[in-house]
Amino acid sequence: MNVTLAPIPYEDKSILFQLIQLYRYDSSEFDGHALTAHGLYSYKYLDHQWTESYRRPLLVKVDGEIAGFALLILDVPKQYTKRSTAEQTNVVSDFFIMRKFRGRGVGKKVAFQLFEQFQGIWEIKQTEGNVAAQIFWEKVISQYPNGEIVEEKLLNNDHWKGKVVVFSC
Predict the structure, then answer these.
(1) Closest CA to 112 of 94, 131, 130, 92
(2) Where in this chain does the record put each N-acetyltransferase domain (predicted)?
(3) May I ask the CATH architecture of the domain 3-168?
């Protein structure tokens, strides 16, 4: 199984938009996202993926087939993150592997590729009710060689309700 991770060019914005629809549908049971009057899920940061230099939209493929995405915020100054006190922090903003590819190690391979490519401090948030995401990230972080949890907190405030892990690699 060949798992690849590549930047999504602006010309492929529609692909990311379609994947975000699947992602928001999957996560709506945990985060309460509702459809718009047009039957779509909104995502206010879609265009920001190409207009803000610190954002990286990445497409996941398995054997050439689209399998998901990772939306990253890289080297963000500490005032943009909720928990990390590091000067620069990488954030997994959104992470989605299609159901067809779950349970096959795809997400773990993608996460490991991200950690290898962008070493440093990471902040990874998981929505309060999304136990599967919490189990996934706990497993991935614990299995990543030379990684270390710096801080792990449960937050319940106006900005975030759920688990936040600050991880160093």
Answers:
(1) 92
(2) 3-169
(3) 3-Layer(aba) Sandwich (3.40)
